[in-house]
């Protein structure tokens, strides 16, 4: 891998992606959820002072819901696997 000669690191990252360990890929969900929560709450709020608290609540809600959905699918998978 060569460093981009013209200094355009963003274009270089699209051609040569960063290789993350398997366990680290799941942690990339948190910044994505934070961005989604912030943008969603910024478009829904009437006052800028309520955005941080509402975005934090939305962030926590999304993460907890995704963990519960993943746990439910895991239990379903193990149940089906046990009976087959």
Quick recap:
With 84 residues, the protein is mainly α.
Key features?
84 residues; mainly alpha; 4 helices; flat
Helicity range of the residues? over 70%
Radius of gyration: 19 Å
**String of helices and strands:** HHHH
Low-confidence regions? none
First CA to last CA: what distance?
46 Å
| Number of separate strands | 0
The overall pLDDT average reads 89
Biggest sheet features:
none
Strand content: under 5%
Number of domains: 1
Shape, please?
Answer: flat
Number of helices: 4
Q: Please, could you describe this protein's structure?
A:
The protein is an all-alpha fold. The chain has one domain. The protein contains four helices and no strands. The chain has helices spanning 9-15, 22-25, 29-44, 51-83. The longest helix has 33 residues, at 51-83. The radius of gyration is 19 Å and the shape is flat.
Secondary-structure map:
Layout: H1 9-15, H2 22-25, H3 29-44, H4 51-83
